[in-house]
Amino acid sequence: MDYSDVSTIAAWVTEQGLKGVSEAELMTGFCAACRNAGLPLDRGLALMDTLHPVHEGRAFRWDSVEEIQTEFEYGPTSSGEAASNWQRSAFYHLWSRNEREIRRRLGFGDPIDFSLLDTIAEAGHTDFVAMMHRFSEAGTIGEMDCFFSHFATKHPEGFSDHDLAILRKLVPVLGLAIKCIALGRIARTIAEVYLGEDAARQVMEGKISRGKSERISAALWFSDLLNYTKISDSVPPEEIIPLLNDYSEAVITAIHASGGNVLKLIGDGVLAIFKGEVPAEACSAALRAESLLREKLGTLNDERRRAGRAATDVYIGLHIGDVFYGNIGSQDRLDFTVIGPAVNEVSRIASICRSVDLNLLMSSDFASAIPEEERATLACIGRYALRGVQRAQELYTLDSARLNG
User: Fold this and answer.
1) pLDDT surpassing 80 at residue 129
2) Is 207-398 CATH 3.30.70.1230?
């Protein structure tokens, strides 16, 4: 392999990074191109921490012969067996000592003193090199502060000095391309976690101008926890966040599983929408979410009561109407949400649940929009004046709806 190949491979990596191909495709293509050009690579791995509520990072692998999982996500390495494995790795050695490179000539008597080296040696690899390229403070996001990679060969003589020189030139280009792709993934993750999937998609597509919105018809969901204030005053302070997390998990997963989009978490409250070209389909999706939530709450409350922890219920208001869906706020602080009279109405409908001892109420507009075969399960509870809403509304519920706390 000569230096003209270096330019060709570096140009290819740059092009693929700009195109936004996946990190696994980039790693596979890079290693294959190096091998085809004469670099004796037989194994490669790259990994980088990320910014994600569940995963600590992502890793990408390549093998010249064996079919392997080309990418995987890993969880926190701060405790337990994961921490022990991390601290025995060549990458931890580099990171903790702020070194750029470490090599073990496995076929020539060097110690097998890091995790995975025994497996690599048993597979016939003769030489191993691990690298770390650390980012500056300005280039660090969360725990994503460096790019790790390792490479191994089965060549009888191991890596030559020329081989290592080639890797030292090319791996930073690979790291930059993978980091570029990872930053795009992080941006999407942050947007989805804090805005919701549909709002995040629209923001990532460029809808970030203040006042940019569209008028849509949607089924609206507003829910709250029963007796949240009373519970929060009676349980130890350290129990409040776990309680909110438990019930938010149940509500949000039920909504998402039924095709809805959560737009706001307001303390213990949740505002969500169900979009659809056909109103009946949007309303049916909201009712599926409500039914699924009841199942989840049954399991959750049983678990919490067995553990001696406070249990409660969720009350829900459902409505359908036209809303404006988009950006509101200042020039430098925007919220992507829904606004309009229908949003106010659904929150008022939900607030009546407590006074009528029902965990579900829906507007007459919502009840009229659901498929005819589903209306047999509805019961009208009367006409109610909603605070801040000009007209009184007939409200409906399901026969099975009763608050349990």
Assistant:
1) yes
2) yes
